[in-house]
Specification:
alpha/beta, 31% helix, Quinone Oxidoreductase, Chain A, domain 1, 13 strands, 2 domains, 275 residues
Length: 275
């Protein structure tokens, strides 16, 4: 299998001692196919130590090479946020040109969803509480932008934009946003359950799911194969680059976490362990 010492750059992007740029996968035991119980026993930063360290030893099989056009900070965004969006929309969602996608918020996963959906030829709606962030999302290719603080019935707004509802919702809010997501999605559509930023529990009339033939799909990052496929897609689209909000030096980790917690970021927050 082979092992090697890999030096840390950015958040999850590494450079080998031989000079090859690479990234470790988030779930070390998940190579390909569906996720099974037990695969998560060596998930970085959850069950085993994460990547916030200057050097670590990982099996060579856990690494994929970095697309040539990405910087170290940009490559750092791929193994978790990028792979999650890829698995939800492409491997599980199988979106295609002309599909309509709604993604919630402007964090790392949501902006990756915007970019990946556009790569596949889909139309994208996005929500945020910030008009400034929505303007930036528009530049990135979002067709519809909705400020949910100004439009509390944003699910209906999105459904009307799509005609009969969107094909796919990237549900990053959780319990607090699921009701509106159910209003936004079309009959027979898919809601990918990814985040719980707006709560984990809610009352829900399951008949709304049953009678409309909806699919609620839980998404837990992705496999090595998903990461490789994402990298291949990005290599084929060199104009697409992960959105990095800000890079912090290692000595400012508390400030980086505070910035992330504030919600002020647009895209990913990266820590450069060499700075």
């Amino acid at each position: 299998m082979g092992w090697g010492l890999w030096r840390r750059w950015g958040q999850a992007s590494w450079t080998s001692l031989s000079g090859t740029a690479a990234r470790p996968r988030f779930v070390q035991g998940w190579t390909a196919g569906p996720f099974h119980p037990g695969m998560g026993r060596d998930t970085l930063g959850c069950i085993v130590p994460g990547t916030l360290r200057r050097a670590m030893v990982v099996p060579a099989s856990a690494l994929t090479t970095v697309p040539d056009h990405l910087s170290d900070a940009e490559a750092a965004c791929l193994p978790c946020a990028g792979v999650t969006a890829w698995q939800a929309l492409v491997r599980l969602g199988q979106i295609k040109a002309g599909d309509r996608v709604l993604t919630l918020g402007t964090g790392g996963v949501s902006l990756f969803a915007l970019q990946i959906a556009r790569m596949q030829g889909a139309r994208v709606a996005i929500t945020s509480s910030s008009d400034e962030k929505l303007a930036q999302a528009k530049v990135m290719g979002a067709e519809l932008t909705v400020n949910y603080t100004q439009d509390p019935r944003w699910g209906r707004t999105v459904a009307k934009w799509a005609g009969d509802g969107v094909d796919h919702v990237m549900e990053l809010g959780g319990a607090g946003t699921l009701d509106q997501s159910l209003r936004a999605v079309r009959t027979g559509g898919t809601i990918s359950m990814i985040g719980v930023l707006a709560g984990v529990k809610t009352e829900l009339a399951v008949t709304r799911i049953l009678m409309r033939g909806l699919r609620l799909q839980g998404v837990f990052v992705g496999s090595l194969a998903d990461q490789q496929d994402l990298c291949a897609a990005l290599s084929a689209h060199p104009d697409t680059r992960p959105r990095v909000d800000r890079v912090f030096p290692f000595g400012e980790v508390p400030a980086a976490l505070a910035h992330l917690d504030s919600g002020a970021h647009f895209g990913k927050v990266v820590i450069d362990l060499q700075a």
